[in-house]
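As a warm-up, study this chain.
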Amino acid sequence: MNRKNRIILSCVYWAFVAYVFVPLILMVLMGFKDSNFIGFPIRSYTLEWYTGVFDDAETISAFVYSVAIAVLSTVISILVGTWIAVLLEGRSFWGRAVVFGMTVLPALIPGIISAIAFRIYARYLGIEPGMGAIIWAHAVHNVPFVVLVVMARLSTLPKSQIEAARDLGADPLIAFLRITFPYLVPAIMGASIFCLLLSFDDFVRSFFLGGYEPTLPVLIFAKLKSGMSPEINAIATVALVLTAVIGVWAERFTRRMNKDS
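Now compare it with the structure written out below.
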C-alpha cells in the first residue's frame, strides 16, 4: 500500500471516528450544562442533572423495568436459540434450510414492521400490552443472534471429542452436558450480553407492546415531547456508560474463556 492510499484510509477512518464519537461527546457535555436548554455556549457547569437522574423515582423505575425485561427475554432467547443451534449444526434433514430461514427471519424484518406484527398477533392471542408482551417480542427478535453465534462456535467443536464420549458409554445428554455445553459457554455468554444490550435499548417493540409502565427508551422518548433538556442528556449518558462497561467486561470475559477453552 503506497503513501497516498494510507493517507486516504486514515482520513476515512478518522472521519468515521468523528462521526461516531463527536455526537456522544456533545451529549455528555450537555448533561453538565447549568441551564434548562441545551446548546452552545456552555457558560457554567453543574452536576445537578446527573444527581437528579438517581433521585428521580420514575427514571429508576423505568431502568429497573428495562433491566428485568432484558434479563428475562435473554434467558428465553438463550434457551431457545441454543436448542435450535444444536439441532441445526452438523445435521442434515429434510426442511433444515426452511427451519434456519424461519429462525433468522426476525432479525431481517424492519423493526417497525416487526413491532406492528407483534402488536396485531398479541391482540389476536389475547395478550395484554405490558411486560409479558415485550419480553415475548424481544425474545423472538433475539433468538436469531443466539443461533448464529452458537452455531459458529459449534462448527469448531472437534467431533472426535463427542465420539470419544459416546464410545466410553455416555448417552447424548451426558455427552452434551460434559463436552458440548462447556465448549459453548463462551459463545453463550457473548450472545447473552449482546441480547441484554439489544433488549435494553429496544425502543420500537417496547413502544408498540408496552403498557402503562414505560421502559427507559420509551421514557426518554416521552420526555423529548416537552423539548430537549440536559436531563435527557444526563439519562442517556448514564445509560451509555453502563452499556459500555458491560460491553467491555463481556469482551474481556469471553476472550479469557476462549483462551481457557
